[in-house]
């Protein structure tokens, strides 16, 4: 039986990918999360996470937030355009119940899915 996790090609792992997202990317935000995105060179949606100690001093809480983000992304990945996406948790995410975080993430994924694909080389238009 195959694990239902997020496959390696769907993850941002290289530091250069994160640097590129910080330098030239679009932004979306909500109360608990901030999202940066840019067109993916691999042709599929990929996820990177940033949940710092500023969000919560407790590793248990930071890991819970990361698990929720990964699971939400895994479920919506097929509907997303080919983007590299970095989700950064805000301090307000700590202590929020899972359904509240999942609802906000679902709203952010829908906003990303509604983005128009780029016309040639350039950034994604809203």
From TrEMBL:
Q: Which GO terms describe its biological process?
A: tRNA 5'-leader removal
Entry's EC annotation = 3.1.26.5
Catalytic reaction list: Endonucleolytic cleavage of RNA, removing 5'-extranucleotides from tRNA precursor
Keywords, A to Z, come to:
Endonuclease, Hydrolase, Nuclease, RNA-binding, tRNA processing
List the InterPro entries hit by this protein, alphabetically: Ribosomal_Su5_D2-typ_SF, Ribsml_uS5_D2-typ_fold_subgr, RNase_P, RNase_P_CS
GO molecular function annotation = 3'-tRNA processing endoribonuclease activity; ribonuclease P activity; tRNA binding
Q: Which GO terms describe its cellular component?
A: ribonuclease P complex
Q: What class of enzyme is it?
A: hydrolase
Lineage top rank: taxon: Bacteria
Describe its partners and assembly state.
Answer: Consists of a catalytic RNA component (M1 or rnpB) and a protein subunit.
Family, similarity comment: Belongs to the RnpA family.
* Described function: RNaseP catalyzes the removal of the 5'-leader sequence from pre-tRNA to produce the mature 5'-terminus. It can also cleave other RNA substrates such as 4.5S RNA. The protein component plays an auxiliary but essential role in vivo by binding to the 5'-leader sequence and broadening the substrate specificity of the ribozyme.
Q: Which HAMAP family match?
A: RNase_P
NCBIfam families, alphabetized: rnpA (TIGR00188)
- Name the chain's protein: Ribonuclease P protein component
């Amino acid at each position: 039986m195959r694990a239902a996790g997020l496959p390696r090609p769907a993850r941002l792992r290289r530091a250069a990918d994160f640097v590129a997202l910080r330098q030239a990317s679009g932004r979306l935000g909500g109360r608990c999360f901030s999202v940066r995105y840019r067109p993916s060179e691999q042709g599929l949606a990929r996820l990177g996470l940033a949940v710092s100690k500023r969000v919560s001093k407790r590793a248990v809480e930071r890991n819970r937030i990361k698990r929720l983000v990964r699971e939400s992304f895994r479920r919506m990945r097929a509907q997303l355009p080919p983007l590299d996406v970095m989700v950064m948790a805000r301090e307000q995410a700590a202590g929020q119940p899972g359904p509240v975080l999942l609802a906000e993430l679902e709203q952010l994924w829908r906003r990303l899915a509604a983005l128009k694909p780029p016309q040639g080389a350039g950034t994604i238009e809203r």
